[in-house]
Please model this.
Amino acid sequence: MEQPSPDEVEITLFGPGYGESVVVHLGDGCWIIVDSCYGAWCRSDPAPVWYLKQLGVNIEAQVRLIVCSHWHDDHVGGLSEVVRQASQAPVYISQALRNEEFLTLLELYDRSPMDEPGTRQISGVFRQCRGGRLKFASQDRVLIAAAGHQVSALSPSDLSVQDALAVFANQARSLIPGSSPLRIPSLRPNHTSVVLSIANPHFQALLGADLEVTTHSHRGWQAIIDSSTTLPDKASFFKIPHHGSENGHHPEVWGSRLEPQVTAVLSPFRGGNVVLPLSRDVERIKSLTDQAFATGVPRAKKAVLPAPVEKTVREMGKEVVELPQARGFVRARRRAVELSSWRVDCFHEAGPLERLYPTDRAG
Model:
């Protein structure tokens, strides 16, 4: 693999089936990383670090921004290692995590007997960020302006942040004094995820993270539609939110904020009994653009456990599966300073949505 030329934009999506990460080249050797995960091809380094090393990128010097869209396990695998290696880059996390209630839960959770990688990764990020390196993303905040591009956060909205604060406060109050929480609540619906806009005078891209829809005008995607001052007019690239699921789909985004044949990419998800995208999700996306791609089709197989552990798990009525670790990723490149089309390359198990999810096999 070779680096993009200085005047090329690149957006690469990794999604091994459980996990997601995006790497973006803005031009002139300026890179940003959004979220982190591991994959079958990179056991030692997180996927974005592995990829940039394959390209010969100086990670410490050339990664100019790190964004954590939210703290769910499948978006933060290896994030603290990304932050460590890209040591000069500011780190943005959701404004929803900038409150005493969440920090209190995070501190308590470090004493918990449960192993929840998501919050442990966030704890590691907090510990590594010193001297103002840790920053907070909220609606319409510009995160970086570099190589002729502006990268802005379109979420979370003020009301979504208030909702999160209330949930964390209630969780903290519910704890028995001296105890530790078993799990920090995953906010549902997810209205605090950080959606990103990338724009220059010649093109616009929209990275939808896992933000969900709502009918309320000040929450989720509706808050972006109704209130954002930095939402692209017509994005030519779209990272489809929440693995293509219906709860991340906003008709007005597709109807008026994306080009008619937008280059759209999703990562699949498989965790427990949840498998995304569903067949109806695939059909919906294929009806909206002919340029839809996926990083793969998630797979899972039964994990081999020691007999005593398997017996305990069975007695608890649970089933343990090995997290799917597919190898695919999708890369889109185009020239930044002129009107041009995206050139899409699919690696390993990635490919067009039409091929990976034919109608009779999707979902």
Notes: The chain has eleven helices and 20 strands. The chain has a mean pLDDT of 86. Residues 158-174 form the longest helix (17 residues). The radius of gyration is 20 Å.
